[in-house]
Design a protein that fits this description.
Elements: E1 4-7, E2 13-16, E3 19-22, E4 28-32, H1 40-53, E5 57-61, H2 65-80, E6 87-90, H3 95-102, E7 107-110, H4 131-154, E8 157-163, H5 177-194, E9 200-205, H6 209-225, E10 233-234, H7 242-257, E11 264-265, H8 273-293, H9 295-299, E12 301-304, E13 317-321, H10 327-340, E14 349-353, H11 360-373, E15 382-385, H12 396-406, E16 414-418, H13 424-427, E17 433-439, E18 442-447, E19 450-456, H14 458-475
Parallel strand pairs: 4-5, 4-11, 5-6, 6-7, 7-8, 8-9, 10-11, 13-14, 15-16, 16-17
Antiparallel strand pairs: 1-12, 2-3, 17-18, 18-19
Helix pairs in contact: 1-2, 1-8, 2-3, 3-4, 4-5, 5-6, 6-7, 7-8, 7-10, 7-11, 8-10, 10-11
Bound molecules: iron/sulfur cluster (SF4).
Length: about 475
Amino acid sequence: MKNNSYIRYVSRQVTIGGVFIGANHPVMLQSMTKTDTHNIAATVDQCIKAFDAGADLMRISVPDKRSAECLATIKNKLAAAGYHQPLAADIHYSPALAMEAARIVEKIRINPGNFSTTPDRSSSVGIMKTEDSTAFQENLRHKLKQLIDTCKVHGTAIRIGVNAGSVPRADHHHKHITEILADAGTGYLQVFESLGFYQTVVSLKTSNPATTAEANLLMIKRMQKERMCYPLHIGVTESGNGISGRVRSALGIMPLLIGNIGNTLRVSLTESPENEILFAKSLVSAGKRLLASLPGALTGRFEQKSPKEYPPDNQHGVDIYSDAANTDDLIADVAGQFVCADSRQKPGHITISAPRLSNRSMADETARQLMQHSGSKSTDTEFVSCPACARTQMNMEKLCAVVKKELPGYPNLKIAIMGCMVNGPGEMADADFGLIAAGKGLVHLFKGQTLLKKNIPPAEAIATIQTMAGETMARQGRPPQ
Ligand code: SF4
């Protein structure tokens, strides 16, 4: 995205329980529980650990009525332990569940697209012009009215969560995904405003860092054009874990933070919620430091870039110095410096000098992952994985560890590891292969969007990918590395 300069974006203020989000309030840090919500003790325990790490808000998934009923007990137990931070409920598909949760917690996260009666989401919900989309909006307004009335009565805020996997498929043929996401977000906000509701936060997420950053920048332009100014929740979905997951998140989030964009932030890692919060803190402090050091910060104007825009050029390298003393701070700092770098070329190599870091190999691995996930040079398989939530019946950290161990060395191959069939297929649509947890220790295996095998052991899925990916690479004359 070239020549994107922005007047600094100041959003309206939204109240979430006793705290505020947006306007000039600090970036609110949040995470999400990965427990079965029915397991109240485990869910409370995860919330407490995340709050102790610095979370300002915790989100809990509510896949069924019993989960919604658990929310009140979870909230009461947290309050009894001295934790009064707001809670959010994550709801898919069911306005009835959303209403039940909205009476208990301070915020709900919904994707209005899956409240629609249009099952294949084939009509656009963006800034509506056509008869179809008008009908879609009218239908959505009808579906949302009772929920919004409930939220008004209880003072509950709503996040509109738009993800790449849930936007209209028909639009993919004639619009870029960033436009589809921004149009959908703007269209939903229009529906909410038509119902007189303004306690709204919006998020646009994909698993691609550069696309996510660009979609959010475009969303700001759309909101400014439509005279809206809602707080933005920022984050990259299905980042994965470890250094690669952190680098993917940082490449999507830092271009926004250094433009002073983003009112709340969630890093989606296939790790514990407290790890997500610790890395989110590193991102926010690196963002502040870089923002303060940029001339744009003084004037309120900022030249925005994302790594995707650089043309490839393997002749030059980038040297980055960081005085970070731990891996989280290092990744946040160097990713921020990388997206700020005054270059229009993808580098052929990155060298990181970090004298305070005791483990030198972490700096080298960060450099390699920066090359990989900025699209500069793919040297290994690209793994993405969902952060897990109550909807999965598998230990996602263990599944990821096995898949990553068995399937390294396929540059340009993207493998997704997802926790459930509710969101998995849509969210991993651009992966070459996908494994989706199916319960009882089994997985479903997808090739692209085609289901290849159902309910098979992970080892069988891995062996199938090894065979198919190996054959493809052999045909291309590229042995696995
Ligand atoms: S893919 Fe499923 S299990 Fe994973 S985070 Fe999304 S809803 Fe939860």
